[in-house]
Design a protein that fits this description.
By secondary structure, this protein is an alpha+beta fold. The protein contains nine helices and four strands; from the N terminus they run E-H-H-H-E-H-E-H-H-E-H-H-H. The chain has a four-stranded antiparallel beta sheet with strand order 1-2-4-3. Helix 8 crosses helix 9.
Amino acid sequence: MQVEVLEATDDPEELVCRAARNDYASQFVGDVSFEEVMDTVDGDSMEEKQRTLISHLLGHGHYGPFEHAQVTFAVEGMSRSCMAQLTRHRHVSFDVQSMRYVSFDDIDPENVIDGGMVVMPPSASDPDWVGRNQKVGSVDEETVEKREALFTQSVQRSVEEYQELLDLGMPPEDARFVLPIGTKVNVVMSMNARTLMHIADMRAAADAQWEIRGLTEKLLEYAAEWCPITFDYYEREMKNRKNRLAP
């Protein structure tokens, strides 16, 4: 899975601080410099002042200002299973590659996994993989070889039959019904910093499915550069708390 940033708010933490200071400022924050906006916040440098204010906001549950900073990601190669989980986050805006209008009729069924059309779960080939609802996951090599072979054969058969249905004149929007839920799809999604923290609460957790957890970790890697003070505090003080942040 590949993740790229299409667009993001410049100086997101300055925007967060301006919005937060507006709530308690007598002057209009649009008419004064950022230095004036932050004048009474503790800190010897602007970075220290921002750290003071952002830590205070997050520590006291004042999440509204973090909704102003926006980021748009393009994700390549997400399974439709992962997409179904991700699109439950209704505060995110999505555009999803259409399988009604995009037909996958040039894929070699013999190379459907290595060629990149379908995501293979690690548990198909890892004898020691332990799933969420399993106490023990280890199996012998013979069993895992059978498991991988069966998974591959099932996917190949689905793709062959999909292509045959297209050749028989069935429209892609109907032929796609035979494709596995692991079929890859490309997604564009936009969210604000608060929503990103909420997704991280839900989907970077140890009990999240491996694919969406991996995606979320990639989003957090970018967030650490985009909003360094915010997500440094999130990683240190908020990530392991019991109560999850509401979107």
